[in-house]
Specification:
With 681 residues, this protein is of the alpha+beta class. The chain has 31 helices and 8 strands. α2 runs antiparallel to α3. It comes from Pagothenia borchgrevinki (Bald rockcod).
């Protein structure tokens, strides 16, 4: 009995051989069914054996199969890897017709195979993405709702590597009246990613119409989409959002207040408009999310909202009937922060709220927060302010909205699977402080620029720039004394603006801390201050700067608006550096480019976690007062006409320390800036 069962479970060699023979059958249906049978029988062994003869036979007969058969053949062929480059391009030529197939399943299966084969040829992969644009747009208009949703999800995936792929066809993503809510919401997510200067007015006008949709989820999604665009076009979006508040509809008001909260976090310059719009919103808000958003706004900008104490009093009077724990905790924080800036108006209501939270509240989270604030007040106002009113970011800085174009390899394995349908919208940037400027990134790199930035020439170019600038600082010469081993830059893992700010201030505090023991406890780090001379670095457009930086895997996080002094740019990258056959050493480098409009003496100095090499303030010939009057543009032009070169101060901070990697990165950055400067000139 057991031997019979054993013989039944093992694949019969004769049957397997016969099935392999039938792969040559002239009937394509027989061929595909044999292929499928072999896949099932040989599942434990990894499936059917795919070699060069079988691969080319299946590809040559691909057109004879029906849609299901073509998808099955293409799926099986993903396990095959060509032996030579000539064979690879022969296979790609055979797949070219299927790449633009009118059948979306065949197109998707072909592109998935295409991306797998071209993993070492990113330019070929990007060209393939361009080819499938028309089939994907056709699939977005399919009568099948399922097909439309799948196409939209895969388009979002492609936009991660080619942000401008669908830019000229944005109208294809306008919502139809009878479309289901889940398709409308996906289309709005795509529209946010396609916004640029040319189409922003039309897209915002379209989204405004969706804000009053009978489906509340669709209306709230449209308001959220307007908020996403508002990070780049704040004035236009705030005008729409303020008008929506006049409708006095509960779900619309709630969504608008939440969107305004997110918007002012990214764009502090919008706070005046938002504060004016908050008057009277509390009467319409009923849901907990909207009330929490309103309370957060009052906590941050309460000193500029005249009715803030009266609004809080309404919340505090009804705290016993409040069912949301989140609202109660937000109310506590808001009352405390408002007390610090308007004590006379809020002292009595703060006492009543703390008494209720400590003596009557049954939720432990609210009670603990009440005890915390009560004890904090006993420590004094100064201690309370340190906790509740921390340091804020420079409002003149602008977060670059938009993520760097991802390599296709990061998502290629999930293409033509269910993963894109499971994923939510991809955030362009996490909420962060700053005032955004819109950047349109051209996915097609500048060939001339990439040739100029050949990494094999970087060290030579940097050495020449050092000679031209006349710097002879001994510390810097030690850092750049020899040709660096191979160095590669990477944008992953991504550093959020909040993480960047924390690391930047942490490194800044390290060198201002007077306690030497605390310095020794800090992790090994290095800081380089360099001045780069160039006639027009500070006058490059943000678009050109971001594109050039991303070309060499340097991510620009924030910048000041054009024609504003002091001009700043913040950036980061990760380095992979190999030391004489050892394992690659990874470091994080964060940096600042600063142009003040003043003629500063060139200083280059290496800082470490110890006392060695600490930059002494006052070493520059002229100090630039923070927040001082900017230099008029006419003076900058005059300096250029007189042949005076402008200097950009570069501050780089590295963790952990690797002098060779830091030197190599500075060489790359210098080459990028000199290339941009020469093109501008």
């Amino acid at each position: 009995m057991s031997s019979a069962l054993f013989s039944f479970t093992l694949p019969d060699a004769a049957v397997v051989n016969e099935l392999y023979t039938l792969l040559r059958d002239p009937d394509p249906v027989v061929m595909v069914n044999c292929l499928r049978a072999l896949e099932e029988i040989l599942k434990e062994e990894g499936g059917v054996a795919i070699n060069k003869p079988i691969t080319h036979h299946l590809l040559n007969r691909l057109k004879e199969c029906d849609v299901w058969g073509q998808c099955e053949v293409l799926r099986v062929l993903q396990r095959y890897r060509p032996q030579t480059e000539d064979e690879l391009f022969d296979i790609l030529s055979l797949l070219d017709a299927s790449l633009v197939s009118p059948h979306p399943p065949v197109m998707a299966a072909t592109l998935s195979l295409f991306l797998g084969l071209c993993s070492a040829l990113p330019a070929v992969g990007l060209a393939a993405l361009e080819r499938v644009r028309a089939p994907l747009l056709t699939a977005c208009g399919s009568p099948s709702r399922e097909m439309r949703l799948t196409a939209l999800c895969h388009i979002q995936l492609l936009l991660r590597s080619l942000p401008g792929l669908m830019g000229a066809h944005y109208k294809r993503f306008f919502c139809g009246y009878a479309e289901p809510a889940y398709i409308k919401q996906r289309k709005m997510q795509v529209l946010v990613e396609l916004v640029n200067d040319d189409n922003v007015a039309m897209i915002l006008d379209e989204l405004r119409g969706y804000c009053t949709d009978v489906n509340t989820d669709t209306a709230q999604a449209a308001i959220s989409a307007i908020g996403g665009i508002g990070r780049s076009y704040s004035d236009r979006c705030l005008e729409i959002l303020t008008g929506l508040l006049g409708l006095k509809q509960e779900h619309i008001t709630s969504a608008v207040v939440q969107t305004m909260r997110d918007l002012v976090w990214v764009c502090p310059q919008c706070s005046d408009t938002v504060c004016e719009a908050l008057e009277g919103c509390e009467d319409t808000l009923q849901d907990s999310q909207g009330r929490q958003a309103l309370l957060w706004l009052l906590a941050v900008y309460g000193e500029r909202v005249s009715s803030a104490p009266y609004t809080l009093e309404v919340f505090i009077d009804g705290v016993r009937s409040e069912t949301s724990v989140g609202v109660k905790m937000e109310l506590l924080t808001t009352t405390m922060r408002l007390f610090l800036c308007r004590p006379a108006e809020t002292q009595d209501m703060l006492g009543r709220l703390l008494h209720y939270c400590i003596e009557e509240e049954t939720d432990m989270c609210v009670r603990d927060q009440g005890h915390l604030y009560y004890r904090l007040l006993h420590r004094g106002i100064e201690e309370t302010q340190k906790v509740l009113q921390g340091r804020r970011s420079d409002p003149s800085l602008g977060v670059l909205i938009g993520r760097p174009a991802e390599p296709v390899s990061q998502w290629a394995c999930s293409f033509n699977t269910l993963d894109p349908l499971k994923q939510g919208p991809v955030e362009t940037e996490p909420p962060s402080r700053g005032s955004p400027e819109h950047v349109t990134f051209d996915p097609k790199p500048n060939t001339d620029l990439s040739e100029t930035l050949d990494c094999s020439q970087i060290v030579k170019l940097h050495s020449a720039s050092d000679r031209a600038s006349g710097c002879s600082d001994s510390s810097a010469e030690g850092l750049a004394s020899s040709v660096a081993p191979p160095l590669s830059l990477s944008l992953t893992p991504v550093l959020s603006p909040e993480e960047f700010e924390r690391l930047w201030l942490q490194r800044q505090d390290l060198h201002t801390e007077q306690d030497a023991e605390k310095r020794e406890e800090e992790e090994d780090c290095a800081c380089l201050v360099e001045h780069i001379r160039g006639p027009a670095i500070a006058h490059c457009s943000p678009q050109s700067l971001q594109a050039a930086m991303q070309l060499v895997n340097i991510q620009t996080l924030a910048f000041t608006p054009p024609h504003t002094l002091p001009w700043r740019v913040y950036l980061f990258t990760h380095t992979q550096h190999t030391h004489s056959g050892n394992a690659p050493h990874s470091t994080l480098i964060v940096g600042e480019l600063l142009y003040t409009g003043e003629a500063n003496r060139r200083v280059r100095l290496v800082k470490t976690g110890s006392d060695d090499g600490v930059l002494v303030e006052g070493s520059e010939e002229e100090h630039v007062r923070e927040g001082g009057d900017p230099t008029p543009a006419g003076l900058r032009e005059s300096a250029r006409e007189n042949g005076e070169e402008e200097e950009v101060k570069v501050t780089l901070k590295q963790q952990p320390r690797d002098d060779s990697a830091l030197k190599g990165f500075l060489s790359i950055l210098t080459t990028v800036l000199h290339t941009l400067s020469s093109e501008r000139a």
